[in-house]
Amino acid sequence: MKTIGLIGGMTWGATLEYYREINEGINEKLGDLSSARCIIYSENFSEIDRLLYTDCWDELTLLMTENAQKLETAGADIILICCNAMHKVADQVQGGIDVPLLHIADAAADHILEKNLGKVALLGSSFVMEQDFYKKPLVEKGLEVMEPSREDRNFVQRVIADELSYGKIMEDSVQRFKEIIATMAVKGAEGVILGCTELPLVVKDGESDIPVFDTGKIHARRAVELALQG
After folding, report:
1. Is the dihedral of CA 191, 195, 197, 201 positive or negative?
2. All domains in the chain, ordered by first residue
3. Tens digit of pLDDT for each residue in 18-27?
4. Which of 100, 107, 201, 222 is at a distance of 20 to 30 A from 17, taking alpha carbons?
5. pLDDT at 33
6. Could you write out the three-class secondary structure of 177-224?
């Protein structure tokens, strides 16, 4: 079994779900008392959040690269960044290490294409919805990506920043997300990518007319597959 390295803490609740999914996935594959070989480097999200919203991407790139290098030195064979938005610096991080960095958008695209879907809506932070770094891998693999209206994008960003990052789940927000997804479905979306690891708190698969894809879970389960290859 290969060792999985996680750059976490963005938020710690999302990292907890990664750890759960990876260990459950290993146990399902190997049975008995099997669990994952896993190393976690968990950041202080308060500092990450400050750097994100002051556009300090050079500092974030250096920080994520140093974290990946620490995991590699500690013995990680595969590295995951447990945050969708932080994949803005994924290419630079990969350039600073010798082990593979598993990109969350690549894992999501492969999973969705296996379902024979071609047109998907993308929900996430403003970084994910409005910049190309996340959509590009999806499009390159053959998916058509839709984004919500400006008003709905602002709503999604506000809920992520002001509610979900603090663990708050507001019923009004849950209902509004259902309405946004329904609108995207009418416009042709065949599925919804949750491009933020906090969004599964308010958007549940099976509660809409189109499938919902939890990118954190997909990312973690793909890491399980890679850890057991060979």
Report:
1. negative
2. 4-103+218-228 (3.40.50.1860), 105-214 (3.40.50.1860)
3. 999 999 999 9
4. 100
5. 96
6. HHHHHHHHHHCCCCEEEEECCCHHHCCCCCCCCCCEEEHHHHHHHHHH
